[in-house]
Specification:
Blueprint lengths: L3 H17 L3 E4 L5 H12 L2 E3 L2 H4 L7 E5 L1 H8 L5 E6 L4 E6 L12 E6 L2 E6 L19 E2 L3 E3 L10 E10 L10 E4 L6 E2 L5 E7 L1 E9 L2 E10 L3 E2 L2 E3 L3 H4 L8 H6 L5 E5 L15 H6 L4 E2 L9 E2 L7 E5 L2 E2 L4 E2 L4 E2 L6 E7 L13 E7 L8 E6 L3 E11 L3 E10 L3 H4 L10 E16 L2 E17 L2 E17 L4 E18 L7 E19 L4 E21 L9 E2 L3 E15 L4 E15 L2 E6 L12 E7 L4 E19 L2 E12 L1 E4 L10 E4 L7 E14 L4 E18 L15 E17 L4 E15 L15 E2 L6 E10 L4 E10 L3 E2 L2 E7 L2 E6 L5 E2 L3 E11 L9 E9 L9 E7 L2 E7 L6 E9 L1
Length: about 900
């Protein structure tokens, strides 16, 4: 017989079991989420409790046959951040955002164990997210964003930490935000987004306060509650105050916290207020004002970085090499400032994907176009006109950037302090097109085409021209939550020519061309919070036409000459790891294997070796012929990239680095400065590749909430097999050019000091460099020695280099700016005497570069006037009134010597020996 109490208990158990297993048949097709849950309420008899906005994006497409309510909810909510809780007795269902409800302690919450015969009660640990506390104290300059809940709590997979990843993008343009600093309150260290704006964090379960900051982006704070692994994409607003700053401002966080040292970032927008010649914005001239970067002289083309030659810089425009990024002998840049986004300069250990040069990498990036509306920017100056357009092709998906600029006056040459040049003429133009298409959040492609051309006539009988042509395609794609890939294909072409036409019979046309094509695939994988890998492969093909000369006209007596084409392959495998050992110690370690092969079809000479047998046509031992595609000579070896940062405090760090590299291509020039007719020579059987080694050590400190940046960095560099020329060398159209050049060693060392003030009415920077650059050529014969085999200063050895750039804002519309430069005069070789031999007068010269020309200094001033900031305007204007070389300093560009009545006299030439005023009108719409 069953007792009444027992019967009641049995009925409760049966009722509970039945309520859990009531079969329900329901379909989610053609129903909204609200309709589905309403029908589920009716069929199950349960009451549901939730907020409508929790399920408004939920799509229920499943059909259920004879399923329990628990099974239905598990399936429907599996791809959401919602959990559910059943109250069986009250027949209620509560939907929960992210979290779960515990209605009983787990069996393991209390454990017992015997200790020496006694029983001890131990409370076990359970990974339950801690309680949430909300923060209301946010700076007025910081954007407070809504609370974000990440992940769906799972009782079977509770952990103390969870992984948060995502992508940061500009809310207005949709462009990724690289170098965004992400901090977690209560934890030291910082996470920085990569080039695609991607990041990954490991956060404690429960409540976290995350802040973000980057140049030009409004600071933000958001409260994040972690219930599980998840994704959070960041759409951030631009900061108008940041965009109005005019100083060259590298990200404050990276200055102190990144492992890479000797790197700088210059924004084209930030350079607009810096007074330069004829009011032209010139991002390369701004680079010369930074420590460790200089040039051989005013108006000289090319950069000398930490004592290196101009050919030791890898200059990239959207991943394609640009061989001569200047117009008009280096006075103007061949880059459109309105289409250029920024340039990243690496003076120390560059990223592991870059190679092929000893001194630096200048990675120039073109901006992506606006995908929302047509916009543009232009300028009208004394010498050039410029216009750039951003055209959306498909809203939020694809855009086009088109830019063009050109010179429309030759009066600048007539103002130069040189009678020969005053009768000359020059013109140039450049154009660029960039297409950007975003397939999805995980895939985008960009393509760039660029062309520039210069024509100039220094004398009445010669017309010179040179041109750059390049194109690149870059596909960035996300392979997984942790890996991204970038595939790049590029082609670059540089050409120069001379058209000589006089009254005699020596008219001719001369041409030179170098062409290269590259394919590179780079991958980035974030293994965990401590390790991020960069790795990939690259291959490059060179084709060089060293020159040909053809007679012009039927009456020309010039003999045609064609130098055999040169071909070569260059490739590399690379891998790097950013290894976070602790919050204080960060390592960036990389290895790169470079390979090079000179290829036929070609002929190569071998020469006698030993004392008294210099390379010349008379010492040729053998001539070897190579078939098409046959390897002539191979070179290569491993390259190291090692950088380390130790963070003493959040705003003070010490950095050190070491790297070595190979360079397989050289310029042939016997000019003091870069010339448009300098030729590039590939390494071959007789000319070895250059090799370089550099070590750095520096201190980096920020002050006053990152308003001030201070850095002090020293470096030492060694170079092997660098090229120079023999006295009186004939380099152009020489079939055996190896007989005219020398290969030796070089060394450079120095200390760089930089102080920046980035905000406030007065901003700018002061840079100072003490450096030495020396070379030695000690061959087996006197003909192959320079200065008896001793080290001598290079043409660009300038021990003291000081730059001061300042901008003072009176109001948001009016400001004044200043640019002051002081440099030690560069070395020069002087004649020291004369003698007579066989009734002829000869001049004797000093050791090479034993003396120096006078020191260089220059002051430039500018007034900047912005139009009013009314919102509904056709265009926003910006006027710059500048005076270049205010003091009228007659700085020597070069010193040369003439003989007058048997007396040797020294004369100097200057590029701008007087003040040069200019007014430039800029507009933006």
């Amino acid at each position: 017989m069953i007792k009444k109490g027992s019967l009641f208990a049995i009925l409760l158990v049966v009722q509970f079991a039945f309520s859990q297993n009531v079969p329900i048949t329901i379909s989610g097709e053609s129903k909204t989420s609200s309709e589905f849950f309403k029908e589920l309420e009716d069929k199950s008899g349960y009451s549901f409790f939730y907020l409508d906005d929790w399920i408004e994006d939920l799509k229920v497409e499943q059909n259920f046959q004879e399923a329990t309510i628990s099974n239905i909810l598990e399936v429907v909510l599996s791809e959401t951040q919602l959990n559910f809780y059943l109250l069986e007795e009250e027949k209620r269902v509560f939907l929960l955002q992210n979290t779960i409800i515990y209605d009983e302690l787990p069996p393991s919450f209390y454990q017992t164990k015997d200790t020496l015969g006694s029983t001890t009660v131990v409370q076990s640990k359970r990974n339950v997210p801690p309680p949430t506390f909300y923060n209301d104290e946010v700076s007025q300059t910081t954007e407070k964003l809504p609370v974000v809940r990440i992940g769906r709590a799972n009782e079977q997979h509770l952990r103390p930490t969870y992984r948060l990843s995502g992508r940061a993008i500009n809310a207005e343009t949709g462009a990724p935000i690289p170098d965004l600093a992400i901090r977690v309150k209560g934890r030291s260290g910082v996470t920085v987004t990569n080039e695609q704006g991607e990041y990954e964090l490991v956060l404690p379960a429960g409540y976290n306060l995350i802040s973000t900051s980057a140049m030009g982006i409004r600071d933000s704070e958001r409260e994040v509650i972690m219930y599980n692994d998840g994704t959070m994409n960041l759409q951030l607003q631009e900061s108008l105050e940041q965009l109005q700053e005019v100083v060259v401002e590298a990200d404050a966080v990276s200055n102190v916290e990144e492992a890479v040292s000797g790197s700088e970032e210059i924004s084209s927008e930030e350079s607009k207020d810096i007074p330069l010649v004829l009011g032209e914005r010139n991002i390369l001239e701004v680079a010369k004002a930074l420590p460790g970067i200089s040039s051989a002289g005013e108006g000289a083309s090319g950069l000398n970085v930490r004592g290196g030659k101009t050919d030791q810089n890898l200059v990239l425009l959207d991943d394609a090499v640009i061989y001569n990024p200047t117009h008009f002998f280096g006075i103007f840049q061949a880059l459109n400032p309105f289409t250029t986004e920024k340039v990243n300069i690496y003076k120390g250990a560059p990223p592991v994907e870059f190679g092929g040069r000893l001194s630096s990498v200048l990675d120039i990036e073109t901006k992506n176009g606006d995908t929302e509306k047509i916009s543009g920017e232009g300028s009208i100056g004394p010498v050039t006109g410029n216009l750039a357009l951003e055209i959306p092709l498909k809203k939020e998906v694809s855009s086009l950037v088109i830019g063009g600029r050109g010179a429309y006056a030759d009066w600048i040459l007539k103002a130069l302090d040189d009678e020969d040049l005053s009768n000359s003429e020059a013109s140039f133009f450049d154009g660029i097109i960039k297409y950007h298409h975003k397939f999805s959040e995980n895939s985008e492609i960009r393509g760039t085409a660029y062309y520039s051309k210069d024509n100039f006539s220094i004398t009445s009988d010669s017309l010179y021209n040179y041109s750059n042509r390049l194109g690149s395609v870059r596909w960035a794609h996300k392979l997984s939550e942790k890996s991204t890939g970038v595939l790049t294909a590029s082609n670059s072409n540089y050409n120069f020519g001379i058209d000589y036409d006089d009254e005699g019979n020596s008219n001719f046309e001369l041409d030179y061309t170098i062409n290269e094509s590259e394919l590179r695939y780079r991958l980035n994988t974030r293994l965990n919070e401590a390790h991020t890998l960069d790795y990939g492969i690259s291959g490059k093909y060179y084709s060089v036409e060293p020159g040909n000369i053809e007679p012009k006209g039927n009456d020309s007596n010039v003999e045609p000459i064609t130098i055999d084409r040169e071909r070569a392959l260059e490739g590399a495998l690379f891998i790097g790891d950013e290894f976070k050992i602790s919050d204080k110690l960060l390592l960036n370690v990389g290895a790169r294997y470079a390979f090079y092969a000179a290829m036929g079809e070609a002929t190569q000479n071998t020469y006698q070796e030993g004392e008294g047998a210099p390379r010349s046509e008379s010492t040729v031992q053998d001539t070897i012929s190579y078939d098409s595609g046959e390897f002539i000579k191979t070179y290569g070896g491993p390259e190291a990239r090692v950088s380390a940062r130790y963070l003493f405090t959040p705003d003070f760090s010490v950095k050190a680095s070491f790297n070595n590299s190979y360079q397989f291509i050289h310029t042939l020039s016997n000019n003091t400065t870069v010339s448009p007719i300098d030729t590039w020579k590939l390494s071959d059987l007789n000319i070895k590749p250059q090799k370089g080694y550099q070590a750095t050590f520096g201190f980096f400190k920020n002050f006053n909430e990152n308003m001030y940046e201070l850095s002090l960095e020293g470096y030492y560099k060694r170079m092997d097999d660098v090229l120079d020329f023999k006295t009186g060398a004939d380099l152009l159209l020489n079939e055996n050019v190896e007989t005219e050049v020398l290969q030796g060693e070089g060394k450079a060392y120095g200390v760089e000091f930089l102080l920046k003030k980035k905000r406030g009415s007065l901003n700018g920077w002061l840079g100072y460099t003490y450096s030495r650059s020396k070379y030695r050529f000690d061959g087996e014969t006197s003909e192959e020695r320079i200065n008896n085999g001793e080290f001598f200063p290079s043409n660009f050895d300038k021990p003291h280099d000081l730059s001061v750039i300042a901008n003072y804002k009176f109001t948001r519309r009016y400001s004044v700016s200043m640019n002051f430069v002081y440099q030690t005069g560069r070395p020069i070789t002087y004649p020291t005497g004369t003698f007579r031999f066989n009734n002829a007068d000869y001049v004797t010269f000093s050791d090479r570069n034993k003396y120096r020309i006078p020191d260089f200094y220059r002051l430039d001033l500018g007034i900047n006037i912005e139009g009013n900031h009314k919102k509904n305007k056709l265009a926003h204007s910006f006027i710059t009134i500048q005076v270049y070389n205010v003091l009228g300093r007659n700085n020597p560009y070069s010193v040369f010597f003439v003989t007058d009545d048997g007396e040797v006299k020294a004369l100097q030439s200057s590029i701008f020996g007087m003040p040069i005023p200019s007014i430039t009108y800029n507009f933006k719409f």
